[in-house]
Amino acid sequence: MNKYNQRTNISHIVHGQSKDKFDILFERLTYIKRFTFSFQCHCYSYTSDINMIKINILFAFTLCCTIVGIQCAPTAGTSSAVQGFAFEMIMTKLQFLEDRSTEKEEQMLTKLSDLISRMENIIQHKNDSNKVRDNVYTSCSEVPSSGIYSIQPDNTFEEPMRVLCDQDYESGGWIVFQHRFNGSTDFYRNWQEYKNGFGNLEGEFWLGLDRIHQLTASRPHELVVLLENLRGHKMHAKYDQFEIGDEYEKYVLKKLRNYSGSHGDFFYHDRGMKFSTFDADNDKSTKNCAETLNGAWWFGVCGYSNLNGPYGTIDYMTSFYSWGAILKTSKLMIRPKTA
Ligand SMILES: [Ca+2]
After folding, report:
1. pLDDT tens, 179-197?
2. Ligand 1 centroid to 331 CA: how many Å?
3. What pTM value is reported for the model?
């Protein structure tokens, strides 16, 4: 079974919603998922067909050579060289077709995966819209209390962004971009999903790298990471400058400066690293860190931080600082710098 079929069922995203409202979206999404699967099967079949043709040609060619009693292997002999050349041409052409088929398959799967991810976002957006206030705020510092709101910081944002605002921690004004607390959402996701975001703003979620980039590139932001282990011990790391690049730059961790906190500079090793998922290895290791650690992060040579890794495990970051206990909650938040 492929990774697209292993993904968490999206039903949690629309939990509690009237079915009538999303029937069409569900049907469409289901159709696309089935189409993706059948398309993959078709591509695999197509590639297998090409391989079978190659084998058949090789067999037929060998048989012909045997019958006429000539040497077919590509040697320095004159006649065999001519025969070998024709054979090589056919095989090269078939190899070209096979490579092209594989390339097209990968491109189509990426596009389909992106489409599914976007549709899940649309469903979540509709879901949240029932609970969100009609007002559009310029920042989370303006909202009356912690909760889900639409914000549009300035005119560079084409449309309002749905976010979870935290007005409780350290005078408030925070936008939450990662929240985990019960393991109900699968965080082992592909590039497109980390790009567009996934999960439920009322539950566990990842806001999306595009949104994090858009926010942090629009004006200076600070970052705070709040962690709590199963023993109830809490710790935090705060950086008064935080910015990530765009997708072209692989969402590189551009700025992460001026640490303060309770247990050390957690992300020291992540500075300047690009974001990696299991299907996008942008780390500095010979391994695929995201795949090895079952996560997605600004990995360097694996190790240290892996806050999108399997829920209920010891994070490298915390174990490195001898805090060593299983993480219960993690909350990553940003807010515009006021000074
Ligand atoms: Ca690597």
Report:
1. 999 999 999 999 999 999 9
2. 27
3. 0.66
